[in-house]
Specification:
With 333 residues, the protein is α/β, with parallel strands linked by helices. The chain folds into two domains: 7-172, Peroxisomal Thiolase, Chain A, domain 1; 183-326, Thiolase/Chalcone synthase (Peroxisomal Thiolase, Chain A, domain 1). It has helices spanning 24-30, 35-42, 56-71, 94-100, 117-130, 219-241, 258-268, 279-282, 289-299; strands spanning 7-16, 21-23, 46-48, 78-82, 107-111, 136-144, 162-172, 183-187, 195-196, 216-217, 250-253, 308-315, 319-326. The protein has a five-stranded mixed beta sheet with strand order 1-7-6-4-5, sandwiched between helices. A four-stranded mixed beta sheet has the order 8-13-12-11, with helices on both faces. A hairpin with a 3-residue loop joins strand 12 and strand 13 (319-326). Helix 3 (56-71) packs across helix 4 (94-100) and helix 6 (219-241) runs parallel beside helix 7 (258-268). It is globular and about 50 Å long. The protein starts with 6 loop residues before the first strand and ends in a 7-residue tail after the last strand. The structure holds acetyl coenzyme *A. Acetyl coenzyme *A (ACO) is lined by residues 33, 37, 41-42, 114-115, 154-155, 158, 195, 217, 219-220, 222-223, 226, 256-257, 284, 286, 315-316.
Length: 333
């Protein structure tokens, strides 16, 4: 292990979506909503929903395998799984993902920062490399968030979708394309109630009301905090590098709502054509959102090697954070 070079460099990218496409009309058949409402209020046209036999671990294995293929090597020393829908409350899901990839024996653990999970997991992977603990790290975001949604709740069901995305990080030089950083990470636990699953955890195993096993969300408050915090955090990483918003070629933010993406870009003074948006076809996929958006932008060629990319996310907790990289010559595997 060489500790001289401390940057974590992105060297592989993978995505995986469950095959079942659920369009807005299908949701509108079951709930008091409409394709028009969902499209205009959220930007979502369809989302993927995992079948009952497919879990967070299964999706993570698919996306992780694709990222390793993209990196051209399946050698990694550690696996960090960002998820808030682990297969079990205990143990963590990451060791099962590692075993599923034939990587049994490596360090593997979960990071739960809900929709900010992928940015937190990237920072964790970069920290393992900077600390000389690992040379190559597989970072995966995988969530079956649809399972936390009350099938009768029109406030959450239309928004969330399932999926997984992953990247491989390797030890490299800070000025190489793909080098991550700086990072800006925050949390505010006083506002945990804005998006929470009240029961089923270790504090309250049994729900008094069955609805308490599902997510409750104060949408408008989350909306306001998401825009303000993502803009604040994006500015913080730019300031630390001496860059300006005009230096950003692609803004890849957590895909929660197209109006959140647009409002945040407006607050930052960022032209709309630099905002990467795939929410229309995947919905809010929680920890998988950023790598899925990166993969889609690579596929449609709107993300090119050499682009300066600003990643930013906001999620339950509350949590939020950002980082920067120059896009390397990497294609989804
Ligand atoms: N279909 C039709 N009408 C609806 C629906 C629906 N699915 N949902 C709400 N409405 C109605 C409301 O009842 C309300 O009606 P009223 O005016 O008669 O009272 C009206 O639409 C407006 O409701 P709002 O809640 O004000 O709608 P808003 O424009 O805020 O959109 C939404 C709601 C989409 C939830 C928005 O607030 C949002 O995206 N918030 C952020 C959510 C988010 O990002 N969550 C994830 C955070 S990340 C994580 O960690 C998981």
């Amino acid at each position: 292990m060489h500790k001289g070079h401390s940057a974590a460099v992105l060297t592989g990218l993978g995505a995986w979506l469950p095959p079942r496409v659920v369009g807005n009309d299908e949701i509108a058949q079951r709930l008091d909503t409409s394709d028009e409402w969902i499209r205009t209020r959220t930007g979502i046209r369809e989302r993927r929903i995992a079948d009952p036999d497919t879990s967070t671990v299964d999706m993570a294995v698919h996306a992780g395998g694709n990222a390793l293929r993209s990196a051209g090597s399946d050698v990694v020393d550690a696996l960090v799984l960002a998820t808030s829908t682990a297969d079990q409350l205990c143990p963590a899901s990451a060791p099962q993902v590692a075993s599923g990839l034939g990587l049994s024996g490596i360090a593997a653990f979960d990071v739960n920062a809900v929709c900010t999970g992928f940015v937190y997991a990237l920072a964790t992977g970069a920290g393992l490399i900077a600390g000389g603990i690992a040379d190559r790290v597989l970072v995966i975001g995988s969530d079956v968030f649809s399972r936390l949604c009350d099938p009768a709740d029109r406030g959450t069901m239309p928004i969330f979708g399932d999926g997984a995305g992953a990247v491989v990080l390797r030890r490299g030089l800070p000025d190489e394309p793909g080098a991550l950083g700086p990072f800006d990470l925050h949390s505010e636990g006083d506002r945990a109630e804005l998006l929470t699953v009240p029961a089923g955890g270790a504090k309250q195993r049994e729900a008094a009301d069955p609805h308490d096993y599902f997510v409750t969300m104060q949408g408008q408050a989350i909306f306001r905090h998401a825009c303000a915090r993502m803009a604040e955090s994006a500015r913080a990483v730019l300031e630390r590098t001496g860059l300006e918003i005009g230096d950003v070629d692609r803004f890849v933010a957590h895909q929660a709502n197209i109006r959140i993406l647009q409002a945040t870009a407006k607050q930052l003074g960022l032209p709309g054509d630099r905002v990467v948006a795939n929410i229309g076809r995947v919905g809010n996929t929680s920890a998988a959102s950023i790598p899925l958006a990166l993969a889609d932008a690579c596929e449609d060629r709107s993300l090119q090697p050499g682009h300066r990319v600003l990643l930013t996310a906001f999620g339950a907790g509350l949590t939020w954070g950002s980082t920067l990289l120059t896009w390397p010559d990497v294609k989804p595997g």
